[in-house]
């Protein structure tokens, strides 16, 4: 019995080793990213948000279904650019009634303003794998300057679809009242913390990308 258990553990170890080989092909040094044009990979790109809810809890939700393009040059990060949009009707929380309210006119007005969009203006590298990406965020029909704190996660060939993929984590805090979304302020916090898991796939044929306005 003891020998069989040891053999089973050995088999499990061997079966788990294969994915680790693929993971070893992912680079975590931003200078090694392949330059070029990328498109958003929407299935694994998401924007999560959190607000202080009536002083009792931090309430969270997310948006999905993003689209957009990234022009990336690791040798000259300042020449990189980003343009991304996301349907606000994709909002998801643990409360179905709240989701419908958030899509309505007192909040995001998804019928009138179906997309939120961020277009970069400048990129400033702040560390080997970090940058500040400043740009214009359009939400609820209002455009306001915002800055993303971006951290490079990894890049390599996705073992499932064999596409060269790059991933980033980005964070920022916006004031929803800047965009005309003032319902229940200050009881539901004006500050909205955003965290973006951004995944992009390299394109064989260059796709158009937003140009930074210098």
Structural summary, described in words:
With 214 residues, this protein is mostly beta strands. It has a single domain, classed as Beta Barrel (Lipocalin), CATH 2.40.128.110. 14% of the residues lie in helices and 45% in strands. It contains 2 helices and 10 strands. The chain has an 8-stranded antiparallel barrel with strand order 1-4-5-6-7-8-9-10. A hairpin with a 2-residue loop joins β7 and β8. InterPro entries: Lipid/polyisoprenoid-bd_YceI, TTHA0802/YceI-like_sf.
Strand order of the largest sheet: 1-4-5-6-7-8-9-10
Low-confidence stretches: 1-22
Instruction: Report on the biggest sheet.
Output: 8 strands, antiparallel, barrel
Structural class: mainly beta
How helical, in percent, are the residues? 10-25%
CATH architectural name: Beta Barrel
The SSE string, one letter per element, is HEEEEEHEEEEE
Annotation, overall tally of beta strands: 10
Total of helices: 2
Determine the strand fraction and express it as a percent band.
35-45%
- Total domain modules: 1
CATH class: Mainly Beta
Task: Calculate the terminal CA-CA distance, rounded to whole Å.
Answer: 70 Å
> Looking at this structure, what is the CATH superfamily?
Lipid/polyisoprenoid-binding, YceI-like
Round the Cα radius of gyration to an integer and report it.
20 Å
- Note the overall shape: globular
- What's the rounded overall pLDDT mean? 89
What is the name of the CATH topology? Lipocalin
Organism: Bombella intestini
Keywords: Signal
Protein name: Polyisoprenoid-binding protein
Signal peptide: 1-24
